[in-house]
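Lab meeting notes turned into a lecture example. A postdoc, R.K., suggested we walk through two folding results consecutively so the class can see how the record format repeats. The first protein's sequence and structure tokens come next.
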Amino acid sequence: MADESVDVSALVVAAINEAVQRRRRKNGDPLSRVVDGNRALRAQLFAAQQGDVSDAERVARSQLADNEASERAHVARMFKTETAVLQMDAKRERQARAADAERARLVEEHAEALRRLKAALDRDVAAVRSSPSAQRSRRATTAPSTTAATPAAPPRQASPARLRARELREEVDQLRQERTRQFAARLEDVEADFNATCEREQSAISAQAATQGSERSQRVKERADRERNTRVNDRVAVRAAQNRERSRALRTRTDELQKSVLLSREQFRAKSCDPYATRGEKSARPERSRTPAVSATAVDEAAEKEAEVERRR
């Protein structure tokens, strides 16, 4: 494990050094400019030391320190970049290995299914061959002939044993084909069931999403209605309060006006120069008709009507 870590570190360092050299060889590369500037500053520093110029030496030292810090920061950034690239390559390689392992697993499962099918067919063939009719035909085929064969005998027809063996081979082929068809039909049924299940689940998910969407829209509509009704009720309540306040002020002002009018009339009567009033008789001058006072009930009814009109609006 330690050897592997050392190898990876060496590869990372080599890659970073190569990238740094490649960047330095480019025209107008900031790192190459920094390196050239450092060389110039070192030359200036040497000249300043030789000429014993303290200010120039201090400036050159500060610039050289800044350039070296920028160079180290640039190298650190390139190291991080190269490390990220290597990590991405390793991640892609792990994903490729996982995909290869999954494909190998699927191939192994398919091969196992084929082996099970072949074993079932072999068992069926063995059962057919071990049947009593097959054994009789085999014994008839292997039994020695009792009659002497003549060299000039005409060609004979196929024996019943050969005919029976041919029939058995045909039956085995038919059985193998039937089993293959059954296996294919079973696979088709499984795929159809899987597709139907997927479609049902998809339709259920779609219906659930639609139901949730309709419920959500209904809730949003109800919330909007409640907020609108609340705003309307608030406006109506504010308008009703304003109307009550206005009616109260109107009643107060009306009472004050009535009191002022009555007081003015009393004062006018007291200061009047009516000759009949001086002799203790009632004045012959007709009194002016009083203005009927505004009823508080009428003011309240007017305020309620205005609030009702605002609520309907």
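The second example is placed directly after the first for contrast:
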Amino acid sequence: MATFRSARDDEDEVLGRGHQLGAERFRTVTRNTGDTIYIRVSVTRICDTYVRFDRALFPLIRKIGGKTEVALAPGTDTPVAVCCFLPPKLRPGAYFLFMSGWLSVLLAQSVTTTYRFQRGYLKGEKMWQRLGEPVDDGTYVLILGTDPRHAGHGYAGKLLQHVLEQHEKAHPGVPVYLETATDHAQRVYERLGFQEMWREQEKQQKMDQSPLNKLPAELRNRIYELVLPRPGPCQIRKTIYRKSIYGEQEAEQPAMTRTCRQIRHESLTMFYASRDFCVNIIEPQDSTCYYTNLVERDFQQKISIFKTWLECTRTHHSAIQLLSLRIEMNERAFRQVQKGYRSATNELGHLLLQYGFQHPRLRITIITDAEDSSPQERRAHRQELLQHDYKSLLEVHEKAVIFVSRGYHQ
């Protein structure tokens, strides 16, 4: 069962980074304790800039006497949901905006961002004047959000219920106002006693109104083929993935797949299905390195990069037609890291099986570079690899493995 407490001063960065893209603060709602309950709803564009605003908002709320409550997952002390609100008659002035750093964040943005923010603020003020509702007389919820990694467990709803109960005890009969941007969130609020007071639709073009969506699926696929990178091998390397704003890893993908949900769904599968993905576990230049610690470190790093990529792309593995692995190591360097190498290759074999990569969608090329060795020595070395070092890998992926031995002594 979730527990609740007030946010600590040292948690501003954690709350700002982990929760605010999922925060609800773009449609205004009011909740009265009497029989009459209203909600005002307006839709505004969500922008990454708001994340920086929210990081400065927590100190501002604290300086003027507002409150920030958090929900904790069972058995932990890590916040998974946050609710920031201002009690009645308590609103920030210019002095507090400056001292908290919030005003500095706003002024550091572009002219367009500042204009949009001010425009949204003025629209809200004008709407309250039309309704004749004295918003300052009620408690105003500025932020209600859940860490996306813990979404779907109802933490935000339970936290809001907790805040409302505390509000009823401290300010009986005083309304509570908040904002939301989704119909799902509105239904949740209505179950807690909220009702719609005002709705305003932002003028923005949706995908169902786009001329692209009116084209047949075949023509849209042809457009995707022209815009996406040309089909061909795609090297899996350290820059193939990046950290998201939540601190998690995500695979690097074409820009077009990030325009909207429908285009992403239609084009991303085509992207993964139209190219072969290649990874060099041991690259040729590593063959000249005979320092044990450097070889081991480089080998483990490449394994880690590949594992991260597999995790990032797990939902698209079924679309990938061919995954090609090239494992190459100089014989002398191999003997230095043989124990760790053997363990890593065994783990690699089971990892590929776990993610559903088998022959014929998987090709593993193992290259041994035996300098100044005779054919008999190379055959003995290969037999050792088959019996010990690649035994587990061959048991799982025998049909996918190709051995290549290179030597300079004839």
